[in-house]
Design goal:
single chain; 209 residues; alpha/beta; Rossmann fold; 13 strands; 27% helix; 28% strand; globular
Length: 209
C-alpha cells in the first residue's frame, strides 16, 4: 500500500515528469500499467485519445479496472509486452506485485498468460501509430529493444523506466540520438522520434505525466 500511495503522489500530486509531445496523442499505450494511476491520468488528460493499459498481474489488473472504471477511452489488456506474441508467466510471483517480472512460458503451463508485441497492441487498437508508449516493465525493456525493433517505426514517443545498464545499452543502440531525441525524466528516459516532422519546437504541446 505504501508503494501505491507513493506512485499516486508522483502521478497526481507531484506531477514529477513534464513531457513534451509533438501533437495531441490519439493512441497511448501504458505498458506495465500496474494499478492504473498513470492510465487514469492520461485518460483524463487526453479524453479524445484511446489509452490501452497492458498489465500481467491478476490482482493488479483487477485494481486497474476498478481505478479506471467509468473512463470510456481506456481499454485494459491483461498480459505482458514482449518482443513477440506468445505466452509468459510471472518469474517472481512471491515478490511485491509492483515488481513482477515476466518470462516465457508454454501456453498451457500453470500461470501462463498472453504475451503481446507492441505491434500487436497497435494493430488491436485500430490505429496505425502509437503517439506515446509508456514502459515500466521491470527489465523486459532490454529484450524489447534488443530483440525486436520494427515496432519503433510506428511509435512517436517513448517514456521508459530503465532497469540496469544492459537495458540502457539496448535502448541506446536501438534508438540512436541521430534518430531519437533523448531526455532524462527522473527515473525514466523520454525518447522522441526525429522522424516525425512535427517535432519542431514551435509545434510542441506540453504534457504533464
Amino acid at each position: 500500500m505504501v508503494v501505491r500511495y507513493i506512485v499516486f503522489e508522483i502521478v497526481f500530486v507531484d506531477r514529477e515528469f513534464e513531457l513534451y509531445l509533438p501533437t495531441e496523442p490519439r493512441l497511448i499505450i501504458d505498458g506495465g500499467a500496474n494499478v492504473g494511476f498513470s492510465t487514469a491520468f492520461y485518460a483524463n488528460r487526453f479524453p479524445n485519445a484511446r489509452v490501452i493499459a497492458v498489465e500481467p498481474g491478476n490482482e493488479n489488473a483487477s485494481l486497474l479496472r476498478t481505478n479506471c472504471q467509468g473512463l470510456e477511452n481506456v481499454k485494459v489488456v491483461e498480459g505482458g509486452l514482449w518482443p513477440v506474441s506468445g505466452f509468459l508467466r510471472i518469474a517472481n510471483p512471491h515478490d511485491p506485485a509492483w515488481s513482477f517480472r515476466c518470462e516465457p512460458a508454454q501456453e498451457n503451463s500453470r500461470g501462463a498468460f498472453p504475451a503481446y508485441s507492441v505491434e500487436d497492441i497497435i494493430d488491436r487498437s485500430g490505429f496505425q501509430r502509437c503517439n506515446l508508449l509508456k514502459l515500466d516493465i521491470e527489465g523486459a525493456e532490454e529484450r524489447l529493444f534488443r530483440e525486436s525493433r520494427d515496432w519503433l517505426a510506428r511509435v512517436d514517443a517513448i517514456l521508459v523506466e530503465v532497469h540496469g545498464e544492459q537495458a540502457l545499452a539496448a535502448i541506446k543502440e536501438a534508438c540512436p540520438m541521430s534518430h531519437w531525441e533523448h531526455r532524462d525524466c527522473g527515473e525514466k528516459l523520454l525518447l522522441l522520434s526525429r522522424g516525425n516532422e512535427s517535432l519542431e519546437q514551435s509545434s510542441r504541446t506540453k504534457v504533464l505525466g
